[in-house]
Each structure stands twice: as structure tokens, then as C-alpha cells.
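Data deposition worksheet. Section B asks for the primary sequence of the deposited chain exactly as it was used as input, without tags or linkers unless they were present during the calculation. Section C holds the resulting structure in C-alpha cell form. Section D is free text for depositor observations; keep each observation to a single sentence. Incomplete worksheets are returned to the depositor.
Section A, Depositor: J.P.
Section B:
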Amino acid sequence: MPMWLFTTFAILLTIMILEIARLTPLLFRELKFESDLDLPPTLSSCQANGRLSIIVPAKDEEANIKASVESILASSYQDLEIILVDDRSHDGTWQLMELLQRLDNRVKTVKIEKLPAGWTGKTHAMYVGASVASGDMLLFTDADALFSRDLLLRAISYFVSNQLDMLSLIPGFKKWGFLEKSIYPHLALGISFFYPITSVNDPSSGAAVSSGCFIMMSRKSYNEVGTWRSLRGQITEDIAMSRAVKALGLKLRVSRSDLVQTKPFDNITELIRFWRRTFCGGLENGPIKVLRLWLNYTPLLIPFGLVVYFATKMATNGNIALDESVLFGLSIMTILAIEIPFGIFLKHYHGRWLYTLLSPFGIFTGFWIATLVLFTKMLNIGIEWRGSVYK
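Section C:
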């Protein structure tokens, strides 16, 4: 092996080991967050906050909308209304909404026929839903979300007790399948690198992120940020709202919670499309962040490639040179530095140690998505989402 190539790989692997060692404590600090709201499912009289309006935008959600709404209606918090907004669906979503309205008078329905210029579909649907809501508290959620019975009581109690302006919950999955256990965590760590929850919940930090599956706001705060109208062109409207809240000095809190769950990904293509959109919108238009995302994943493929190369060479030739042995050892050390913290992370989030063996697939998927995001930004390619194309 040429000396320049040996030196390049040796320096790169050493830097990777040191960088992973630096980031590992930050990862463990993130894991200290409780996965659910650690509050009793009761409200004191001083915490009771009146009517809660839950806005549910839906486009072609025939398979999910009924179960989602029924889970909300079964909540132990009863002073609520549900605003179902049909966003130009082509399936039976609207018919199911009308059925749900007939079965429970707490359900209201709104039908959208045309998307106004300059709006994204979901943002417009939520704006329309909020405009007809009567509650002083607003909750924006997805049509495939399932609520536990005590979620709303706990969330409102947490919201009021902490004097929040916005609360967002990162959901769990209804079912943790192969994609959710082996690939999704690598991508979740990718966004956490830029917006760790500890920083998001720090009022002095500019970091902001949230999940559109559960965004609770007071109407006062919602109006103060300019409603969804001020964010009408955002492809990641949830992250944009969290930025708007923090920019005004309002109090944001983000937490993970299995009390709200979303559907698993149907296939790898759906997962890639979701994260491409998330990274494109979440990293704004800053080329530095997009390039940093690509550099976060790309070098991680090198030690796995080197191990495969040297192992194959040893199997065919019986031995390798001294400099190659050094690189082989550094590559193994780098892989261990990656796998051990990730294994702990997986065990904490519904995974198994066995899935750490699939890290190369997760890292490669992250690299592929980061490459797509890089070219999307460089070439100003639109993002297709729910039948519409946004730039």
C-alpha cells in the first residue's frame, strides 16, 4: 500500500475514533430523557384549561383516520373537539370523516378542494382547521397517530405546570419493525446531531425542532407567531413552527413519548422520502449544514469497507502487510467505537443488540439520503410530498 494512502486512512480513522469519543457523552446525555411524560394522569382544578381543539389534517388517509380519531375520542380528557380537515383526498377519507361526525358531536369536518398558491398542503389544512376551532388550547396531530387514553391529561398537565407556549412529542411506532430498529435510529441520530433535545429545550439555545405528530399550543402563542399563515411555504412546518416559537422567546418543550404512536414505514422508499424531506426542511438552506450532514455519514462507511477488504485479502492470500495490519486494527477499533454506543442507544429505544450488526445498512442509507439532500439543494430540485411538489 502506498505510504500516502496508508497515512491518509490512518489519520482519518484516528480522527473518527476521537470524534466518536467526543460525541458519545452527548448521546448518553440525550438518553436521560424519560420516554413518557412522567406525570400522573390527573388534572387539578387550577390546571383545568378548558376546551382543547384537536386539528387533524388528512390527505388520502382512509386506512388510518378512523382508528386515529377513535383513539382521541376515547381519551380521559373529555372537554375537546376534533376538527377533521380533508386536504383534497382521492380515496374514502372524506366519507369516513362524515361518518365520524355523525357518530360523535365532538367531531367537526372541513373539506378543502383547492390548495392556494404559496402554501404547502398540510400547513394550509392546519390553518383552516385552527380558524374554525373554538378552544383556547390547540393540538395539531397527524391522521395516522394513535393516542393512549391518558395522553391528553398528562400533556395538558405538563403544559400548564411548566407554563409552556408549545409542547411537541416525538412519537413511538405502533410496531417496531426491521426498518424502525435497524435504519431509522441512524437517521434520528443524524437530525439530533444538529438539534439535540437538550439544546432544543434550552431557552438560551437557538436549536429548534419538533414533531408534527403532536404540537400543542395555547391559542395566544399560536396567534403571536402569526399562525400557520406565516409559515405557509415551509415543507417541514413542524420544525419551522418550533423555530418561530423560540425566535419570539416563547417557551418550547420537546420530549419523546410512547403515549402517542405513529404507523411504521411500509418500505425503505417511504423511509427515504420521509427523511429526505425532513433533512431538506430541517437544515434550512444553509449549504454548510447540508455538507456537514453528508460528511457525518460518508466517512463512517470507510472502516467497514476496509475491514471487508482486508478480511477478504487474508482469506485469499493468508496474510497482509504490516501497514495493512495497522489499518485493519484501526478499522476494527473504529467500528467498535461506532457499534458500542449505538447498541446502548438501540437497547434504550425498543431495539436489540443484534441490530448493531446491521449498522452498515443504516449508515449507507444515511449516506444515500444525505447525498440526495446535497444534490436537491445544489440543483434546487423540488420535493414531492403527498402528490405536490415543493421547493
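Section D:
The chain has two domains: 3-30+288-390, 52-264.
The longest helix spans residues 3-30.
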